[in-house]
Amino acid sequence: xEEVHGLPVGHIGxxxxxETTRGLINVEEICAASPRLEYHHFRPRRLRxxxxxxxxxxxxxxxxxxxxxxxxxxxxxxxxxxxxxSR
Length: 87
What we know:
The chain is α+β, with helices and mostly antiparallel strands. It has four helices and two strands; from the N terminus they run E-H-H-E-H-H.
């Protein structure tokens, strides 16, 4: 597509959305899959649905943990992207 539209090869970047438990499990591989990956996003909607991957209900609170219950997810995705330079 780049050549067809007269763009230099490698010009178009990729944005990845991590939105399933399988995506979270494979986030390191996803972030390292292409040097074109520029951004990665977490979309918790599917994880939060009652019938979603993790079955985590929206707004669920963990009394023993005062922070955001997606803190691990955010940290894992952030750390997976650091070595590749994606944001």
